[in-house]
Amino acid sequence: MKRSIVIIFGLALFGAMPAHSSTTYTIAFTATVGPTPTSGSFTYDSTLTTFTAFQVVWAGTTTFDLKALANNPTITGTPPCIGGSTGAAATFLVMTACANGQWDYVTESIGPGAFDFFDYGTGGNYSIATDPNCSNNCLANQAGNYVATATPEPGTSALMLIGLGWLMRKRIAHGFRQATRTRRSRPRMQSSPLPRIRLRSRRLSPSQQRGTAPLSSS
């Protein structure tokens, strides 16, 4: 029992630990020009202030890996949305808190094309782009807006419920095994033989057999 309580407490403590708080976000795209990307997502560690994953899929076949760019964006001046933030922290603000953030895909004559996120403001510009100079002869572009939403993760309460469910399952299984063992080890009652009663017959005298008693002599 004590061991089970320790395990449940450990699960709750693990769920409450803030270290390495990585959160995965799903990107929902809307288009103002052309089609939208197939999907997009990123994982951001707020403790280490870094992106551990960042991908956008275009047309269901082309995947743009933007992790390195997201950790080292191009910033000119001081965009009002990110303030003085730099690096991954600036990208995280653009993806989650900047109302003017936009996406852009450019079709090129060679290769899979180019993809970028940007936020242009009066105080400065922010961007991450796979081909910022359009080196492969840009032909057309699609663009629009986006919203990044955090994917729910199990919290302390969920871990506590998992621990309690595991404990109940273990207790039920233990009780079943104990009941089975008791039934198997219960001694069988054996019936003892009844004592044998021997009846002894009494021999009657001739007079008793005739039903008359002998006369006494005078």
What does this structure look like?
Helix content is 30%, strand content 32%. With 218 residues, it is α+β, with helices and mostly antiparallel strands. The longest helix is centred in the last third of the chain and has 30 residues. The radius of gyration is 44 Å and the shape is rod-shaped. A 9-stranded antiparallel β-sheet has the order 4-3-2-1-9-6-7-8-5. The protein has a domain of 149 residues. The protein is built from 5 helices and 9 strands. A hairpin with a 5-residue loop joins strand 1 and strand 2.
Per-chain topology:
Layout: H1 2-16, E1 22-33, E2 39-45, E3 50-58, E4 62-65, H2 67-71, E5 74-77, H3 87-96, E6 102-108, E7 114-120, E8 124-129, E9 138-150, H4 156-185, H5 206-210
State the gist of this model:
This protein has 218 residues and is of the alpha+beta class.
